[in-house]
Amino acid sequence: MRSVRYPDARSTNFRRYHTAFLETPRQGAAPGVPSYAAELVRLGASEALAAALRAFLAQRHPGDQARLYHSLVHTEEVASLAAAVVRRRDDMSAGEKALVIVSAALHDLDPERVPDTPARVAATLSYLDDNTEARRLLGAFCRQFEFTTDQVKALILATDYSGEAREQEIIEFRAELAAATAFCDDARGLGWGRLIAFLDRVASYIGSEEEALRRLSGLARELRTRKRAGGHPHGPSDAQVLAETPVFLEALRRNPLYRVLSEEERERFEAVRSVVAAAAAPAGRFLA
Q1: Predicted local distance difference test score (pLDDT) of residue 32
Q2: For residue 234, is it within any domain?
């Protein structure tokens, strides 16, 4: 397994690739602690357990982190955005909020994938079952907050995505079955999975405009690497991925879950959406 060093808080990459909400200060939180980890502590996890989750994730994201879309930073952004969203809700228990945050933190756990390729949901679910350290860590959170591994896996399954309509229908059907099996209230569980899926897709577009364009270049790179690993010499160019992104972002804006974002988060999204649309236009400037 390829080990990835967790970026130092003083490094240029750390400042460049962490968006504003990632380290929003929390009362009693140590400086430099990602907000998802601080929120887990606020909900009742020990600092040691939250730190163990951070360390676990830091060693399991293969590839050049500064050039990827599905990087360690993306994982922490999604988890921190999930923490911010559930903290604003008064219809969830501490255990339910922790379930959503932990599931978001683990949603791209696929350390055995080809470096510089997207994480695979099926591989994530298998890793949670097969890896001793993963089972031990997740078991500790399950005992602390009284949720189950199957519930975490059901929420992660809901984050799977395909651009093909028929494949996406199958993915959503499987997510519904998993929620029905794992939760007494399957509609509630499925709703949390869909929430994480939405946050997973929107998190890269509520930071800076420059960073969003870099992420799209990273996504194109991941897709090309996956194509080559599968024996196909060609994959989408940066320009092709960029050209398709405005439709994707418009679908996010029309998603009913868009309202879970704060006013500030929506404003950042709209700013990024405008820049991406301009860059994707025929007269726009594509990333090299």
Answers
A1: 67
A2: no
